[in-house]
Design goal:
Layout: H1 26-34, E1 44-46, E2 55-58, E3 63-72, H2 79-96, E4 100-110, H3 116-133, E5 136-144, E6 149-159, E7 173-177, H4 183-192, H5 203-215, H6 220-228, E8 233-236, H7 241-253, E9 256-260, H8 270-275, H9 281-290, E10 294-295, H10 301-307, E11 316-321, H11 322-334, E12 340-346, E13 353-356
Parallel strand pairs: 4-5, 9-13, 10-13
Antiparallel strand pairs: 1-2, 2-3, 3-6, 4-6, 7-11, 7-12, 8-11, 9-12
Helix pairs in contact: 2-3, 4-5, 9-10
C-alpha cells in the first residue's frame, strides 16, 4: 500500500463518504424514481421496474446488450487502487446479469487544484482491470468537481436465454454469497485513522489488505459458476448492504427469504472495527430502513449493522437449487473465494426477510 507524499492530501480526506456508502438510500431512491414517468419499449427487457443491476436491451440478432454505470468518491488513499476498485465495481453489474463486458467509458470528476498525476494513476488502475476482464476502455467524460469522482459506464452482451435477473428466484432455493462483507466498516476505519504503513500488521492493516483483495476481485468466475449451477436469480451486493440487496431480489421475485447471520462470511477484524465505532453513514441508514422489511425476532443492532454494511465491489448473491448450492460453494472456494450458503427462499410477503442469529 502507498501513502500520499507530504505535499499531497490523502484522497480519503477529500470525500464526504466512502465508496458505495455515498449512494442515496434505498428509500430515497425509490421515492425519487416513483415520481417520474419512465418510457416503456418492447425491446427493453430489464429496466427500472425491478431495481436490477443493469439495463438489458434486445438486439435484432437475438442477443442482448447489457448496460450499467457506477462511480464514487475515493475510499482508499492509493489512486491506482481506487481506479482498480471502481472499475471492478462497475463491471460487476454486467457479470451479475450473466453477460460478458465489451466496452467502457470513464466518468471523471476532478478538482483542478488536485494533482493530475494522481488522476493518471486512477485511470491506469482501471485500465489494468479492463485488460484482465477483457473489455476496452474507449473514452469517457470529465468535469471539474468539488470532490474527486471516478467510475465507468460498462456495456456487455449475452444470449437472451443466459441473462440473469433479480426477479426469477423461486421458493425452496438456497442463497449463495460469493464474497465476505465488511468493506464499508473497513474503509470507514481507514478514512478515520492514521495512514497505514507497508509494515503495519495491526487489525486495520490486516482487514484493509483483505478488503482490497476482495474489492479488486472480479465477479467473472462467480458469475460463470452461478450459470453452470443453473442459478435462477442474481444480484451483486453493494451500497444497500446484504440486507438491502436481498430484499430487492426477494421483492422482485415475489417471495420472502431467511438469512442465517452466522453463515455470512466476514472480512477479518470487521466485528472489532465495528465495535470501535467505525460505521459508515450509509450502513446506518441501511440498518434503520431494514426495519421496514425484517420480520420475526429482530437481530441485535450489531448484527443488523454488519448485515446492512454498505459494500463496495461486493460479491454476487444468487439463488440456486439446494442440491447445487454446495457444488457452487465448493467450486468458488477452490478458486479462493470465501463463499457460503447464507440462507433460503420461501413463500411469504414479497421482500420480507427473517434473520436467524444463531
Amino acid at each position: 500500500m502507498s501513502n500520499p507524499t507530504p505535499t499531497q492530501p490523502r484522497l480519503t480526506a477529500l470525500s464526504h463518504g466512502a465508496g458505495c456508502a455515498c449512494k442515496l438510500s434505498l428509500d430515497e431512491l425509490q421515492g425519487i424514481l416513483a415520481g417520474v414517468t419512465w418510457p416503456e419499449h418492447d425491446d427493453l427487457l430489464v429496466g427500472l421496474a425491478s431495481g436490477d443491476d443493469a439495463a438489458v436491451w434486445r438486439q435484432p440478432d437475438g442477443r442482448v446488450m447489457v448496460a450499467t454505470t457506477d462511480f464514487f468518491t475515493p475510499l482508499v488513499d492509493d489512486p491506482r487502487d481506487w481506479g482498480r476498485i471502481a472499475a471492478t465495481n462497475a463491471v460487476s453489474d454486467v457479470y451479475a446479469m450473466g453477460a460478458t463486458p465489451r466496452v467502457a467509458l470513464n466518468l471523471v470528476g476532478w478538482p483542478r487544484d488536485l494533482d493530475f498525476d494522481l488522476l493518471r494513476e486512477v485511470l491506469d488502475g482501471a485500465v489494468g482491470v479492463a485488460a484482465d476482464a477483457g473489455y476496452v476502455i474507449a473514452g469517457g467524460h470529465s468535469i471539474d468537481a468539488v470532490e474527486p469522482l471516478f467510475g465507468q459506464v460498462v456495456i456487455g452482451d449475452a444470449d437472451e436465454v443466459d441473462v440473469l435477473t433479480n426477479a426469477r428466484a423461486v421458493p425452496g432455493q438456497a442463497i449463495v454469497l460469493t464474497k465476505p462483507i465488511g468493506t464499508g466498516v473497513v474503509t470507514t476505519a481507514l478514512k478515520r485513522s492514521a495512514p497505514l504503513t507497508a509494515d503495519d500488521d495491526g487489525p486495520l492493516a490486516v482487514a484493509y489488505r483483505a478488503a482490497l483483495r476482495e474489492m479488486t476481485r472480479l465477479n467473472r468466475d462467480a458469475a460463470r459458476i452461478a450459470r453452470e449451477q443453473e442459478a435462477t436469480a442474481a444480484t451483486d451486493v453493494t451500497g444497500f448492504g446484504l440486507l438491502g440487496h436481498l430484499h430487492r431480489l426477494a421483492t422482485a421475485s415475489g417471495l420472502a427469504a431467511t438469512l442465517h447471520a452466522a453463515q455470512v462470511p466476514l472480512l477479518p477484524h470487521v466485528g472489532e472495527l465495528l465495535d470501535a465505532g467505525f460505521v459508515p453513514g450509509g450502513s446506518q441508514r441501511n440498518a434503520e430502513q431494514a426495519g421496514r422489511f425484517l420480520t420475526g425476532q429482530l437481530p441485535s443492532e450489531r448484527t443488523r449493522l454488519l448485515l446492512a454494511d454498505a459494500q463496495t465491489s461486493g460479491g454476487l448473491l444468487f439463488t440456486v437449487d439446494a442440491a447445487r448450492a454446495e457444488a457452487a460453494v465448493a467450486a468458488l472456494t477452490g478458486l479462493g473465494h470465501d463463499a457460503a450458503v447464507v440462507g433460503s427462499t420461501h413463500e411469504g410477503a414479497p421482500g420480507q426477510l427473517r434473520v436467524v442469529e444463531g
